Amino acid sequence: MYAPATVVTPPLVNEVDIVIPTIRNLDFLEQWRPFFQPYHLIIVQDGDPSINIRVPEGYDYELYNRNDINRILGPKASCISFKDGACRCFGFLVSKKKYIFTIDDDCFVAKDPSGKEINALAQHIHNLSTPATPFFFNTLYDPYREGADFVRGYPFSLREGVTTAISHGLWLNVPDYDAPTQLVKPRERNTRSTWYVDAVMTIPKGTLFPMCAMNLAFDRELIGPAMYFGLMGHGHPIGRYDDMWAGWCAKVTCDHLGLGVKTGLPYLSHSKASNPFVNLQKEFKGLFWQEDIIPFFQNVTLPKECTTAQKCYIELSKLVKEKLVSIDPYFEKLSDAMVTWIDAWNELNQSADGATTVKVKPTKPK
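RE: above sequence
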């Protein structure tokens, strides 16, 4: 049995969806119950849709499997990956909330160095509810945190900051390493005493970062259309780069739109080390491709006409087809899928002209 965390007053209950991709029973939610139970869950079941996923009693949730995805999206379902954690972005698509928090099913409540349980979701909401400072780095990290401020020499004209669109959390215990690093350091673990850094910082404009989706929150209204996790896993030549791709696309979109991205707190505890040999098979091409993909994103310039995340993403899809197909034909398929994703987003969500949002429902669990 998992020891339950301490009960707290939940913030923004009606404005947050928790999205969880899974292939197994969600027993891990028992430990998160005091923090998560007040919120609505969107569970995206990967793999065999005939398998029944058990969700602990008392949770308010929708569960979507592959049959639901095909039924709701029709031909556009081709843009949602199968047998890969990238399927989680379907939950982003059907949500109607302002904020999304997404977590993996092998992540548990962590404790800070004092032994206090960390309410990861509450910290993410705080990060998203306070400004970011992407244009000038504050050496005391988050100046909006209680007890902190802007240091001497920080321009007063920039102290209002900008709206935060992404909050990227970290992990204790099993680190999020690529396969080669896993093989070199198979027993390495992040401990509270050596890895815990009590800080949140804004990632500067023009700087990319490796986004990990196991502990991630974002403002769906501002950046949701750019949070597409690509074509990964079954039927595709690459895996385990779904969150990386979304992170690169979302970061250049945030930079262009003048939005902020934070990283640091909150921590959670990542419990399961995946097989490094299986991971190497999935990552192999990506390890080479990223050396060309990252410079591509570093040099992306979006036109001033791109005033929304949707417009930015369509422009990125064109640039992907123009610049990355020389690496591998896969990128032509990915470019087309990016367009399909935006088409699906626009179809299921309220458009700029105020059209009615389409409501979708999963198949009721047996």
